[in-house]
Design a protein that fits this description.
The chain has about 70 residues and is mainly alpha-helical. The chain has three helices and two strands, in the order E-E-H-H-H. The chain has a domain of about 40 residues.
Length: about 70
């Protein structure tokens, strides 16, 4: 599991991200709806590298949450 540190907004710690967690859950379940969920997230957060990573993987036809790193 990967954890992404989140900043604070108006002094309130953002320790949970419900929208990302819902999209990631779809990804983990290999749901076809995961692609749409991450497409919506990337529109809201175009600078979020984690969202971009998962969207790129889904667009490349990868499914699930297992990432195999076979190159440096």
């Amino acid at each position: 599991m990967v954890f992404e540190p989140l900043a604070t907004a108006n002094g309130i710690s953002l320790t949970q991200d419900g929208e990302y967690e819902a999209a990631y859950s779809l990804l983990r379940e290999q749901s076809p709806q995961a692609l749409g969920a991450f497409e919506r997230l990337v529109q809201q957060r175009p600078e979020d590298p984690l969202v971009q990573l998962h969207l790129a993987r889904l667009r490349a036809g990868e499914r699930g949450d297992l990432i195999v790193m076979d190159e440096k």
